[in-house]
Structure formats: structure tokens, C-alpha cells
């Protein structure tokens, strides 16, 4: 009988809790763009800001963001014990455990978020289960917002193709749309977050040139480009924020 390996996010517990805050100028750029996408989603879809249920909240990296977006109560879920301890200092309430361990004991929320978590779930079946369980925590009429990387404009050692690293992966947006549909979700919007400076193959050299990557102007410029393109297109965004309802 084949030995069942535990899902990647369990094998990698404690290794995937880094966030935009650990990413210097590039991290700040990503965060500014993600915030713009969230603002856009909240306004367009009248997303409730009474409470955010943040699945995979790490050490509370989004606490300031959530408050700036108007959320009144911050409720997190996080399996990494060290991260939970820190998250409890900045969130109102944090559950310790993997989503599947705590899903049965949490009250649904009108707004549920999973930022930067699916990128760390390598197995298709585990992604489907994660989305299904996240959806089960969405109160009637509410929304699940989750971020996914688009491998076509992200660039990894596999180029612009789907890629499996030891603790993260990239897929096509079609892959994530199919899995979300299998999990019983209706995607009502897809909003680009950030466009990478190496979105074009001709700009691949930027990805490998630390000197260029350290320049603040580079990131400020691509933040402007991302903001200008966001209302009009999902291409060539490296990441998308999916806004979903239970179907
Ligand atoms: C890269 S961090 C993202 C943190 C934060 N959401 C952000 O965007 O800054 C991913 C977090 O998700 C957590 N995580 C991974 N799989 C999970 C699961 N199945 N249930 C709950 N949290 C999970 C990890 O422990 C990690 O702290």
C-alpha cells in the first residue's frame, strides 16, 4: 500500500511564516499593492468590515493593514506556535492550529481572508480542502478573499510554468479557478495585486540583478504601474486577489 505523505503545509510548519514584512523594499511594494487591491474589493463588493477572520495570520503581519482597511475585530487562525504568540499581541483573538483542526469550533464570519497561504499548499486535493473549509467559515451573504500567484507572470526556476519548490508553488490562474469551483466557491471578482518588474521575458535580467532590485525607484515605479493597470486588466499581474462567495 502506498504510504500517504502528510500535506506540504504540515511538513513545512514553521518554515512558511515569513511575510511581506520580511521582504525589505520589495515587501513594502507588495504590501502597498495588496492593500490597494483589498480597498478596491471592499468598495466594489460592500465587503463587511465588522470582523476579519484571517486564516494563516502568521505573527499578525496584517494587523495594521486590517485596522487601516476599517476592520473592527481581528480574528486569526495560525498553526505555528511561535507566530501565534506574537499574533495574540496584535489581534483580538487567535486560534492555534491548522484550519482543519479548528474549523469545527469557530463561529462563521462575514469576511474570511487567506493571504499568502495557498502558495504554500502544494497538493491539489489539500488546496481544495483548504478552500472548502475556508468557505464553511463564511457566514450567509459573506465573502472569502484569497490570494493566488499567477505562474505566467511570477517567474521561478521553472520560468513561467507551474513550479513546485520545497515549501511553495506557483500555478496558473485556471488551476486555482478550477479548484475553487470544486470547493463550492463562486468567484465574483479577480483583482490584480502587484505586477513584478520582470513580468516581461525581456526584463528577466531584473530578477537576477540585486543592484537594480535594491533601488527604491524601481518599486515605486511598479507600484504606479500596478495601480494604473488594476482597474482594467488581470494581465500581467503576478498575484490576484480572488473574491468569492459560496455557490
Ligand atoms: C506566508 S504566511 C502569510 C501570512 C499572512 N497571511 C500575510 O499575508 O502576511 C503563511 C501562513 O499560513 C499558515 N498556514 C499554512 N497552512 C495553513 C493551514 N492549513 N491552516 C492555517 N494556517 C496555515 C503558515 O503557518 C504561515 O504562518
Set out the fold topology.
Elements: H1 8-11, H2 24-45, E1 51-55, H3 63-68, E2 73-78, H4 81-90, E3 93-96, H5 99-102, E4 109-114, H6 124-136, E5 138-149, E6 163-164, E7 169-170, H7 173-182, E8 185-192, H8 204-207, H9 210-213, H10 216-229, E9 239-246
Parallel strand pairs: 1-2, 1-4, 2-3, 4-5
Antiparallel strand pairs: 5-9, 6-7, 8-9
Helix pairs in contact: 2-10
Bound molecules: S-adenosylmethionine.
- The span between the termini is 37 Å
Structural class: alpha/beta
* CATH superfamily (homologous) name: Vaccinia Virus protein VP39
CATH class: Alpha Beta
Q: Could you tell me the CATH topology label.
A: Rossmann fold
Task: Summarize the biggest pleated sheet.
Answer: 7 strands, mixed
- Classify the helix fraction into a percent range: 25-40%
The general outline is: globular
Bound molecules: S-adenosylmethionine
Number of separate strands: 9
Q: What low-confidence regions span 5 or more consecutive residues with pLDDT below 50?
A: none
Which CATH-level-2 architecture? 3-Layer(aba) Sandwich
